[in-house]
Write a structure and sequence with these properties.
Chain A is of the alpha+beta class. In chain A, 50% of the residues lie in helices and 10% in strands. Chain A has 15 helices and nine strands. Chain B contains 17 helices and no strands. Classes of the chains: A alpha+beta, B mainly alpha. The interface between A and B is large, with 106 and 114 residues.
């Protein structure tokens, strides 16, 4: 009894119709009273709140806002002409294409892997737990996870740690820093000396826009560079002090240490690189004769990772040059992907548990036989386990399709107002129109949703009746 | 000859080798699943920690930094919200919706399932097919007509109205689940009782209902969580209610301009406490319900 996994795996056994109901006449009458009493409450509630309203909604979808005037298919035409609805359909399509596949895959992987560990129950509890949390609260939870500022959002913090390790932020990542003497800003973010220099010559490279507290600790006063034979030397410094002059290293003006500099042969690319020392002086040794410029590398000014706006509407597909309808249909906003990840967090546990039950119900002898025949684990999985699991995988897949078609709460919980428009879905659009009292259009949206689940209805009936 | 003798001394060490091999083989899986498990906990822990931090801290640093300094955590948010946020009233409304909606579904569904399994009547199979079909009808499909109907009946904007809606949309799955379970009850039991002169109600009350308890538990937990966590129905029918249920309360807070994260995170966590307790206490029944109703 209660071999519940079977329900998900096989068609149900039909109840045997063997209960005697007595003969005709009095017995039959009593039986119909019993049917009325037992089935009656469910029939009344379902009839009044589900069946009749469903029919009524279909009828209303052919009437206007007030529900009094028949408008034919106008509501549907209006609907499919609005960007809002096109976006909603596009998003539901993205969900349906991506999500059931990902969840089923994750569930399968988890179910198979948990068979190999001793603490499977603990793992399943952890992964399954989000099922108990409301979709709306899940939205709030993931808002915090997705915070753009790497100091607040755990994902951006993790991404930032990696990005900053690969491309360390510069020592001079300051918003207002700019060249002021002997240098000019370049489009690539670096700065290039205005003058060329020969071996033995010097350059003075002045910057400004650096607050005193942003001067690296240990910086010493800069002083005018002296030439070195066979080398190019110079000073890079903060060309700012009370009463100071542009292009002149004034009293108490600090050198800028740790500045990455590159020596460029005029018109011929980089030759050497060096780093300035505590007083901002630098030197390239053994420079062959010629004319050179010095570049202050852009890496000095590279800002740390500022965080990705995961709940933003930036498209993952190129949309330039598309008309507005095509753009509505072909955009894949980043926020969709972020929502899908949050939903995976909820539903992977479900898929894992259902598929796990299917795995447990598999005939071990068949798997053992395959092993005895010399099949390795992957072959056994691929050729035997997977085909046997097919019905369960399909159940999970179909369940996820229904889920995703009806998706609603998580959008309201997760997506900030600024992205709501691009994250719209059919169920949300229905509710928006409902709360605007646009009952004709709203009903039409509900009918669209209904039509999309009808194939699932037939699938379920066929499966359950065997 | 030596070739045959050779394996003999190795034989005792073979199990040890196998053991070591098994550990080595399972290590990557264990490591991977520990990582996945931790990853799965991060979002919830993030909300939990955030709800115990002053709002100013939220803007200053990540919640994970607070774990290292537990001294900065405070129950101040909870104290504030319980005094000002209307959370207490919201909690009461949620309970007033969830408990009746759960009990009614359990009752009506076990009656209906009895009729589908133990009574013979024409059209029984068709009713079952209809129920299977109704299981996936979206909630949205009935919103407008039911809102109109409730308007006439004076149920719009009331708790009984919301309860009724949840009962109705919970029933198809509930009857499906109970019918599935009842089908496994041996018919002989009822036959014997019938011969002893028991009527249908007595058989339902004395035999079927007690035997069906495990399934009823699964169903109750499922329905409880489903109703507790609902936003759509509550928002549609109780949007203007003076003490809306928890989900609507948080939704309103989120929509109000400038509500800060300390309030939102605290309210969200409060809304999650009871579902999580129910989940951990009755996980076995919950899993059963999920498996039985994988179609919903």
């Amino acid at each position: 009894m209660a071999t519940v996994p079977v329900a998900a795996v096989e068609p149900l056994a039909r109840p045997a119709p063997d209960v005697a109901t007595g003969g005709p006449g009095r017995g039959r009458f009593r039986n119909s009273i019993a049917v009325g009493l037992f089935m009656g409450p469910a029939a009344i509630v379902l009839g009044a709140i589900v069946v009749y309203p469903t029919v009524d909604t279909i009828i209303r979808s052919f009437f206007d806002k007030s529900g009094n005037t028949f408008v034919g298919t106008n509501n549907y035409r209006t609907l499919f002409g609005t960007t809002e609805m096109l976006i909603a359909i596009r998003n539901n399509a993205i969900w349906v294409i991506v999500f059931p596949f990902l969840v089923t895959f994750a569930g399968l992987v988890f179910a198979v892997l948990t068979e190999r560990i001793r603490w499977a129950t603990a793992f399943k509890t952890v992964v399954f737990m989000p099922m108990a949390i409301s979709l709306f609260a899940t939205g709030v939870i993931w808002r915090i996870v997705y915070e753009t500022d790497p100091h607040r959002g755990v994902i951006n913090s993790a991404v930032g740690t990696i990005v900053d390790a690969v491309h360390p932020p510069g020592l001079y990542a300051l918003p207002n820093i700019k060249p002021i003497s002997g240098l000019a800003a370049q489009p690539d973010g670096s700065m290039l000396s205005n003058n060329t220099v020969q071996p033995g010559g010097t350059l003075k490279l002045g910057l400004t826009g650096i607050l005193p507290e942003n001067i690296p600790p240990g910086a010493q006063d800069a002083h005018a560079p002296s030439g070195a034979s066979g080398g190019v030397s110079g000073a890079v410094w903060r060309n700012f002090s009370p009463g100071g002059q542009i292009g002149v290293i004034g009293n108490g003006e600090k050198g800028l240490p740790g500045m990455h500099l590159t020596l460029l042969r005029d018109g011929n690319g980089s030759v050497a690189s060096t780093t300035s020392v505590a007083d901002g002086s630098f030197r390239f040794n053994d420079v062959s004769s010629g004319s050179y410029r010095v570049s202050v590398d852009s890496s000095n000014f590279r800002t740390p990772f500022g965080g990705t706006n995961w709940l933003g509407i930036q498209s993952l597909t190129p949309t330039s040059g598309l008309g507005s309808t095509a753009r509505s249909l072909l955009t894949i906003p980043l926020v969709d992907i972020s929502e899908i990840i949050a939903m995976l967090w909820i539903w992977s546990g479900f898929a894992m548990v259902v598929i796990g039950a299917g795995l447990a119900a598999l005939n071990r002898e068949v798997l053992e036989a395959a092993k005895v025949d010399g099949a390795n684990e992957w072959q056994t999985f691929r050729k035997i386990t997977l085909p046997l699991l097919r019905p369960v995988l399909i159940v999970v897949f179909i369940t996820m399709i229904i889920n995703v078609l009806k998706i609603f709460d998580i959008i309201l919980g997760l997506v900030p107002d600024s992205s709501q428009h691009e994250a719209n879905v059919i169920a949300l659009q229905m509710w928006h129109l409902y709360s605007r009292f646009d009952y004709g259009l709203s009903s039409a949206v509900a009918v669209v949703l209904f039509v999309l689940v009808v194939p699932v209805i037939f699938f379920n009936i066929r499966r359950i009746r065997g | 000859m030596t070739a045959i003798a050779a394996p003999a001394p190795e034989a005792p060490s073979a199990p040890r080798w196998a053991h070591l091999r098994r550990i080595l083989k399972s290590t990557p899986v264990n490591v991977l699943l520990v990582a996945v498990g931790l990853l799965w906990l991060v979002p919830t822990v993030g909300l939990l920690v955030t709800s115990f931090r002053p709002a100013a801290d939220y803007f200053a640093s990540g919640w994970w930094q607070a774990i290292a300094h537990p001294a900065v955590l405070t129950v101040e948010n909870y104290r504030n919200i319980l005094h000002t946020g209307g959370i207490g009233d919201a909690l009461i409304t949620t309970v007033l919706i969830t408990v009746p909606a759960t009990l009614l579904v359990v009752l009506i569904a076990s009656l209906g399932a009895y009729a589908l399994v133990f009574l013979r009547w024409p059209g029984r199979d068709w009713v079952f097919v209809l129920l299977v079909a109704l299981m996936v009808v979206p909630l949205q499909m009935a919103l407008i007509p039911v809102a109109t109907l409730y308007g006439h009946l004076g149920l719009y904007g009331t708790i009984p109205g919301v309860v009724l809606y949840h009962v109705a949309f919970g029933l198809p799955f509930a009857i499906f689940l109970m019918r599935n379970f009842y089908s496994g009850i041996p018919k002989d039991l009822l036959e014997a009782a019938r011969i002893d002169g028991a009527n249908e109600w007595m058989m339902f009350r004395r035999i079927v209902l007690p035997l069906g308890m495990p399934a009823l538990a699964s169903l109750a937990i499922f329905q409880f969580l489903w109703v507790w966590n609902d936003l759509l129905v509550a928002l549609s029918f109780l949007g203007a209610y003076p003490h809306p249920p928890l989900t609507v309360n948080i939704f309103n807070k989120l929509s109000e301009f400038g509500t800060s994260i300390d309030v939102i995170s605290t309210a969200s966590f409060i809304s999650m406490i009871i579902p999580l307790v129910v989940f951990f206490a009755f996980q076995r029944y919950f899993v059963r319900g999920v498996l039985a109703g994988a179609v919903k």
